[in-house]
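User: Structure tokens for both sequences below?

Assistant:
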Amino acid sequence: MNSIYDYKVKNAQGDMESLEKFKGKPLVIVNTASKCGFTPQFEDLQKLYEEYQAEGLQILGFPSAQFNNQEFENQEETMEFCQLNYGVTFPIFAKVDVKGENADPLFKYLVSSQKGLLTEGIKWNFTKFLVDKEGNVVKRYAPQTSPKKIEEDLHTIL
């Protein structure tokens, strides 16, 4: 696989969807959790999405329960939580594993493209990846990095 467009992911309804539909758009891909100390980042991710959506930006959220089981069991609860508490309108996909042998192939690709500070694997919820319009993973952000700090890098790929 050469770019993120080669991957298919399961959407919130449980259907497989090709990431090729996002071709030509800058992306922020983030592993999320509804019950995490970083969960308020949904608010700034939504603001980023609203501000740059007209320029093509897509934010793709992938819930994961791999870190202290901080995600709802039920997909509908996750969706409702994100929409009611943070007004999330960007796509939230089906819950996935983001590390380990059962990690979703997309996340295996993301971490192999942009290694972390001390390790290749994802260490916690809200690890963010910036992807350019050609599907190249150009930067990785730590969980504690505010989505506001992505904005400067985003300008270089819009």
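Moving on to the next sequence.
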Amino acid sequence: MIADLKPYAEYKESGLPWLGQVPGHWEVRPAFGAFVPNRERNHGMKEKTVLSLSYGRIVIKPAEKLHGLVPESFETYQIVKPGDIVLRTTDLQNDHTSLRVGMVRDRGIITSAYLALRVNTGVSPNFGFQFLNVWDMSKAIYGYGSGLRQGLDFSHFKRMPVAVPPPAEQAAIVRFLDWANGRLERAIRAKRKVIALLNEQKQAIIHRAVTRGLDPSVPLKPSGIPWLGDIPQHWGIVRNMALFAHRVEAGVAGLPVFQVSLRSGITAEDLDQFGRPKKLITDTTKYKRIYRGDIAYNTMRMWQGAVGVSPSDGLVSPAYVVLSPRGGTCPDFYDFIFHTDIYKQQVNRQSTGIVSDRNRLYWDSFKQMPSVALPSSEQEAIVAFIYSQTSGLNAARARLEREIDLLREYRTRIVADVVTGKLDVREAAAQLPEEAAPDTSTELAGEMLDDAGNLDEVEAEET
């Protein structure tokens, strides 16, 4: 059905490069003719349900996340209701990756640092959201705003042209997009299920290799550690301080900046089209030096697997702990251990903080944690075995992730082409079967983790 879509018969110029030509019968209004800012404040605490904009969704913020990170009084927040559209308008200068537009599904309050809009007569909330969503996804939103960190206010885009179809056509567009998104999300979820099975298989291979070794005939003995269980008889148990030293060296100029990703360990930060770091480093001494073969972990996300082995010399955030392997320590072997579920559970227990999801694992706690000790030659053999046994699984996962990326790109293109009138969906929408709107919560939650990689960025988007 999607492949059969055709353009409209007649077009006219919209006046915007990112919007291009729009169908000739669509009305082109200034933004203030389609949207009006919401100025309703929560005076007298009329509403208590706190909402958050998180990766394109407006969600109810859990009570456990309301301590210490938000004001005690929410009277300064703005009241929003279902159908309102919320834009995160801060820091456009530095953040070009976040999804900034969300539609409210639950009545509640949200920070007044965001811009809340309501639609004017003749514009449906769902279509208005989709239009602003395309404005955001096309990156055209970053051409607006002002100030040092490029904040955005309604006055900055209130005269921006908005292409508005007739009401019946808006309904057809929204219905078609709901159907198309549902189909694509089901395909993505199916691939995610296969990825989850591949991950389980990989984890089983790693867990057995790093806790029992490669020779099933070797006698076992109790490790003395309840969560670890039996280990090969010739293995020992030592504290992490016997395996690693704490490296604390100031950064130096000229080295690449690394970040710890939940997905891929230590990777270089994003580069621009010229191969230069997107983030300008004015004072490298505020970073930590890391050497090839060192291990670094994110103090706040170690319990989720934010740890990796450095591929070369570089710089890392001061929020990371850098571990220098002592003699006889194979960093790749212990990196595999740190990524096992049983070890991450122990990390979570050893992490400390005021709020559970903000707990941190510092060196003083990490160095006291127990780990297995075995000959370096055996460590290296286990690492080689794991790589050989999981290479096919990794390739299959990479292929599926690429397919998911292509489906997301296709979804983005379809939404943009339909909302801006490049494709006519009126006839297709009329032929669609009646079906429930898709539940996107699982898919979007997966995107939060996989696209961001480093969950610090996920947390930064929730306000």
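User: Anything stand out in the second?

Assistant: Confidence is low (pLDDT under 50) at residues 272-277, 441-463.
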